[in-house]
Design brief:
It is a single chain. The chain is α/β, with parallel strands linked by helices. The chain has one domain (21-244): Rossmann fold, CATH 3.40.50. It is 41% helix and 21% strand. It has eight helices and eight strands. Strands 1, 2, 3, 4, 5, 6, 7 and 8 form an eight-stranded mixed sheet that branches. The longest helix has 17 residues, at 170-186. It is globular and about 55 Å long.
C-alpha cells in the first residue's frame, strides 16, 4: 500500500480534488486514514449484500473506486454464483480494480463499467451500494439518482449508502469537524495536509444533513430506513424497498 503524501508539501495552488492516477495509486492508504470505521463499514456491507442478494438480479456498486467492497463481497459469497456490476467514472481506479479481479478465481463475476452515475442505466438489482459517492454529485442531481435506484431494486431489495454528513446545529457540526480533524491527525496527517485536502474538496464534496438524506430516501419510496453505523460526521444507512403484498409470506 503506497503512502498518501499528495498534500504533504506546500502547493502553489490547490487544485480541485479528483480521482486521478495519483489518487488511485494511494487510495487505500488515503481511505483508511481518512474515513473512520472504513474496514468495518465494508465488511458489514458485504455481509448484508450477501444476505440480501437474489439470483437473477444484480448487485450494483455505484462509485466502486478500486474495488474494496467487491473484493470483500467475493469472499462473503464463497461458492455462490454472483452477478455484480461495478461503476466508476475514474479509469485509473478501474484499472486497479481489474488487476485485482484478474487475480481472483471468481473475478469474472464482477463487470466493471466506466461511466458517470447519472447516465448509466440501472438493471434489476437486489442490492445497490453507494459508498461516499453521492456527496460528489451536484446536489440538484441527487434526488433523481436515489429515485432511479429505488425503481431498479426488486421488492425487499436494499440500498446501502455511506456519506459524510453535516449537522443542522452549527455547534454540533463544528464539534464533528473538530473530532474528524483530530482523527486524521492521529493517523499521521499534518495540519498542512489536512488544510490543503480540505481546500481541494471545497465545492467538490458537498455534505448534507442526515435529515436531508432521510427525506430524500422517503421521497424516492423507501419506507424502511435505518442508520446502522455512525461516527460523528460519517453515517451508514440501510434503505429497504417494500415487498409487494404477494411476496410477503
Amino acid at each position: 500500500m503506497s503512502q498518501d503524501t499528495i498534500y504533504s508539501k506546500k502547493l502553489p495552488k490547490v487544485k480541485p480534488f479528483e480521482f486521478n492516477k495519483n489518487v488511485a495509486g494511494v487510495f487505500d492508504d488515503m481511505i483508511h486514514r481518512s474515513v473512520p470505521l472504513y474496514r468495518e463499514t465494508v465488511k458489514r456491507q458485504a455481509q448484508l449484500a450477501a444476505a440480501f442478494y437474489k439470483e437473477q438480479t444484480a448487485i450494483i456498486d455505484l462509485g466502486c473506486s478500486n474495488g474494496n467492497f467487491g473484493m470483500r463481497l467475493l469472499g462473503e459469497m464463497g461458492r455462490r454464483p454472483l452477478r455484480m456490476v461495478a461503476v466508476d467514472n475514474s479509469g485509473p481506479m478501474l484499472e486497479i480494480y481489474q488487476s485485482r479481479l484478474d487475480n481472483h478465481p471468481a473475478g469474472d463475476q464482477i463487470e466493471l463499467v466506466e461511466a458517470s452515475l447519472q447516465d448509466i442505466p440501472l438493471e434489476t438489482a437486489s442490492v445497490v451500494v453507494l459508498n461516499l459517492t453521492l456527496q460528489f454529485l451536484p446536489v440538484a442531481e441527487r434526488d433523481a439518482l436515489i429515485a432511479r435506484i429505488h425503481d431498479a431494486l426488486v421488492p425487499g431489495g436494499i440500498l446501502l449508502i455511506t456519506e459524510k454528513v453535516i449537522h443542522k446545529e452549527k455547534v454540533l457540526s463544528n464539534l464533528q469537524q473538530e473530532f474528524y480533524w483530530k482523527f486524521k491527525g492521529e493517523n499521521g496527517y499534518s495540519n498542512l495536509e489536512i488544510s490543503q485536502k480540505r481546500d481541494a474538496l471545497e465545492n467538490v464534496l458537498i455534505p448534507e444533513t442526515v435529515e436531508t438524506h432521510v427525506e430524500r430516501f422517503s421521497k424516492a419510496g423507501f419506507s424502511k430506513v435505518d442508520i446502522w453505523q455512525k461516527w460523528f460526521n460519517f453515517t451508514s444507512f440501510i434503505c429497504m424497498k417494500d415487498a409487494d403484498a404477494k411476496d410477503i409470506k
